Amino acid sequence: MIKVRVASRVPVAEDIIGLDLVHADGEALPPFSAGAHVDLFLGNGMTRQYSLCNDPADQSRYRIAVLREPSSRGGSAFVHDALLKGAVLTISPPRNLFALDEDGHEHRLFAGGVGVTPILAMAYRLHALGARFILHYCARSRSRAAFLEELAAAPFAASVRLSFDDEPDTRLDLDAVLAAPSPDRRIYVCGPGGFMAFVTEGAAARGWTSGQIRREHFAAEVAPTDQNRPFDLVIASSGQVVGVAADQTAAQALEAAGVFVPLSCEQGVCGTCLTPVIEGEVEHRDAFQTDAEKAAGLAFTPCCSRARGQRLVIDL
Fold first, then answer.
1. Which UniProt keywords apply (predicted)?
2. Same domain assignment for residues 85 and 111
3. Which of 47, 102, 122, 260 suits a disulfide with 34, CB 3.0-4.6 Å?
C-alpha cells in the first residue's frame, strides 16, 4: 500500500474534481501504464477505483478525476466532501485492466463524460509512441466535459473530436468514425453504460470484432433480484458448504461463514474477488470478464454473480 497526500484539488467540470496525489513521504511513485487505475481506501471504510488520467511519463503524481454521483453509495461523496488539499490517504499500487495494445496500427478512443480519465492517459501515451489515433470525447454539455482546456492545449489537440448533446452539429456519427474496421485497428471506450452500449454495439454492427474492442465499465448492469434462488457454495479445499440465501450475495454468505474473500468495488467491475470455479454453472453478472471467459465458466465474481443450479464448487 502507498500513503499519498492530496497535493492539489481543482474543479475540472461541473460536479467533477481533479485531485493530484503525491507520495506522502516525498518518495517516487511506482510507474503506471495508460489505462491503469488505483484503489483508494477511504476514511469511511469504503474502497473505490479511479483511473489515472495524467501522462504516464509524469511519475511525480497520480491524477484522478471524480464525479459526484447523485446516487452515490458513499464513495464519490466522501471524495468530494473530505479529500481536501493536504489530506492523507492510502492507495494501492497501480494496476491495469484496460491496457493499450501498443502494436495496433490505428486507434479510436471513445470517452463519455468522466470516462475521459483513462482515455486521456492513453492519448498521451499514443502521442509519445507516434501512433495514429483519434479521441472522440462526448458529454451532455461543455460544462460537464472535463479537461477541455488541457485537451485544447495538448500536443495531440488536432486528434481530438468533441461531441455535446446540446450542440446537435457536433453529434457523434458512427457511420463516419467507425468505417473500415481493418484488423489492425483498435477501439477503446469508457463511460456510462448507455454510451458504452452505443459505441460497442454500433461497432459490432459495422463489422468490428470483439477482439478489436476494449472497454472499461464504471459499474456492471444491475441484474433483477426478484428471481434470485438460494444455492450452496462448496469450498473444494475443505469441503465446507456455505449456503447463499436468495437475498444474499455469495460474498456476503462467505463472509458470514468466516471465509475471507477480497472485495473492492462489489459491483462486478474490478475483478478483485474473481474466484476459480471447479464445478457448476455460473450466472454471470459481472462486467469484468470477457464473453469468452464467461462462456468457459472457470471463474466467477462472488460480489454479484450466482449459481444457475443448486451449487458451485469453488477453489478457495
1. 2Fe-2S, Flavoprotein, Iron, Iron-sulfur, Metal-binding, Oxidoreductase
2. no
3. 122
